[in-house]
Amino acid sequence: MAISYVEADDDDDVVLSEINTTPLVDVMLVLLIIFLITIPVINTSVAVRLPRESNQLRQSQPATVVISVDAKGGTYWFDARLMDPQSLQDKLKLIATRTPQPEVHIRGDARSDYEAVARVLYACQLAGITRIGFVTEPPANR
Prior knowledge:
Layout: E1 2-7, E2 13-18, H1 22-42, E3 65-69, E4 75-77, E5 80-82, H2 85-96, E6 104-108, H3 114-127, E7 132-134
Parallel strand pairs: 3-6, 6-7
Antiparallel strand pairs: 1-2, 3-4, 4-5
Helix pairs in contact: 2-3
């Protein structure tokens, strides 16, 4: 808020107040740009072509773990590639002890081998994960 003094004819100072909105507009534009840049990063960035099946719409919880299997059989924990099956097993054992136990969503590429997805299922079974789901895309409209 800016305050300015104006001299009157009778030597009394008159106070005029006005709101300077320029800083407010600057902050709002910066926040808008930050949100526009960060929203696309939130989506999962591992490129997989999901199988097309009809499914039920469910809300993803913040505690949901997403494991992706790409077309070459590579396994990803969210967006980070896992180099060996033991690291997947260790991470799954860690989340299996949480209460409530988070869901594990498996995003298997339709072109990947069944063996790569089966390894992830087996690791979930060994860790004691009880809530497992497969992420698919809805069938194409014909």
